Amino acid sequence: MADRKGAYGDKANDTSFRKTWDRAEYAEKAANRDHKLKEEGRARYEAAISGKKYYKRASTPEDAKETEARKSRLDVASRVGTTMLVSAGSAIGKRGKGAGFYCEACDLTFKDNRQLVEHENSKQHLYAIGQTGEVRRATLEDVKERLAWLKRKRDEETGREVLDLGTRLEVQKEIDEREREEKRRKRNEKRRKTKDGMGIVKQEVENDGIIC
Amino acid sequence: MAHAADAKKALDSRGYTGSLIRGDNPLKLFEKPVRDRIIESYYWKEQCFGLNAATLLDRAIELTFIGGTYGVSQRPTPFLCLAFKMLQLTPDKEVILFYLQQEEFKYLRALAAFYIRLAWEKDAEVYETLEPYLADSRKLRRRTREGWTLTHVDEFVDDLLIKGRICATTLPKLNPRVMLEDEDKLEPRISALGEELEELDADDDGSEGEVVEVANGHANGNGHPEEDGDNDADMDAD
Question: In the predicted model, is pLDDT for residue B225 greater than 50?
C-alpha cells in the first residue's frame, strides 16, 4: 500500500506489522509447496508399490553440524560470590533469562550448572544449535594427528614456564606488590565510605565487658 | 558410521544393536550400580559427551590417577568414566594398540591396558599384548575407596592379568598362563629379569626350606573373585 498520510499530515511509521502483498514471493511459496507435495506423493507411491510403509520424516537441514565434544569446561568458579541483577518478571519457569545459568539458543534458565550441562546434552538443545547429535568416527590417522597436536601443545606450555630461580623470584615479588596495592586501595575505599573517614571504631569497655 | 554422542541409546533396555563384546552389549561389562554412578556423574555429563577416539585423547592426557569408585557415595573416577566411554565407542584394534604403544602418556597406556583386558576375547592375545608392559616401571597414582596409594604401571598390568576384580569391575575370565602353555598356545614366559631370577631361585633353594607363601598366578573369574581394595562392598547398604 502506498504510504498513507494521516489527517494531520504525518506518515504512520510503524507499519511493519502490516502484511506486504508481494505477489512474486507468494507465487514462489506456492510453487515450492506444490513441488513438495509432488515429491511426497511420489515417495508414497513408491513405498506402496514395494509394499513398504511410507514414513514422513523431517529432513535434516543441510547445514547440520556433527556433534563434537566440549572444547573447554563450563566456567562456574569465576561466578562464585558475584551478584547479578535480574529483572523479576523476565523468567517464567525455565523460559526467559532469569537468575541462574542461561542457555541462549533455547531461551531457558537453569538453577544449577549440572542442569545446564544436562540440558546442553539433550536433543532439544542440539536441534536448537543445529547439530545432529551424532559423532564422527575417528580413524587411526585422526588419532595419531590428535596425539601429536596435543603433545606439541603441552610441550609449548612447559617450554614457556621459566625455571630460572632468579626470574621466578622477581615475578613472584611483582605479583605480591600488585596484590598489596590492591588490598591497600580497597581498605582506603572502605574507610572513606564510613563516617568521617574514621573507619569502624572499636568500642573499648572497662574490664573487658566483664561485670564485676 | 557415526557414534552416538551419549550412551543413553546403548543402555536402553529396548535392545542394543551395535558391536558385541563376548556376545553382549559392551557396556554390560560394568556392573549396574557402577554404570549408574558413571552416568550420573558430572564428569561424564560434562566431559564425556560427544567424544570420539581422537577427542578422547584430550581427556586421557589430563588424567592424573587411576581408580574405580571412591568415597561413601561411590563416585567414579575420570579413569573409570573414560574406560566406560571407550567401551561405548569400541574403537578399532589398531587404535587401541596405538594408545597402548605410545610412550609419552602413562595413564593413557593404563587405560588401554584396562580396555584390552576387558574387551579382547582371545586369552593368548591378551597375554602377548600386555606382557611387554610388565617392564614399564613408571609410577601411577591410584585412588582407592578411602585414600590414595602409589602403584606402578607394571604392578597394574600384573593385577590385570592375575586378579579377579579391579577398579570396581569384575574382570572377565582369563585362563591361567600355565593352562595356555600346556595347550601350546603360548610360549613359556621369558621374564625380563632373566638370569637374576635364576640366581634368586638358586639362593632360595639354599635356605632352610621355610614355607613361603607365593601367590599363584591364577585369574579367579569363576567361583570366588579375589577382592582388592576397590571392591564396592557397600552394595548391601541399600
Answer: no
Q: What's the pTM?
A: 0.70
Q: Would an 8 Å CB–CB cutoff place A150 in contact with chain B?
A: yes
Asked if residue B75 lies in contact with residue B92, where contact means CB atoms within 8 angstroms, the answer is no
Find out whether B78 and B110 touch, Cβ atoms under 8 Å.
no
Helix orientation angle between B106-119 and B153-162, rounded to the nearest 10 degrees: 10
| Measured CA distances, B34 to B21, B48, B228 (Å) | 18, 16, 16
Helices B93-101 and A140-160: crossing angle, nearest 10°? 20
Residue to mutate among B55, B92, B98, with most A CBs inside 10 A, is B55
Q: Strand, helix or coil at B140?
A: strand
CB pairs under 8 A between A and B: 86
pLDDT, tens only, B53-111 = 889 999 999 999 999 999 999 999 999 999 999 999 999 999 999 999 999 999 999 99
pLDDT of residue B232: 46
CA-based torsion, A98, A101, A104, A107: positive or negative: negative
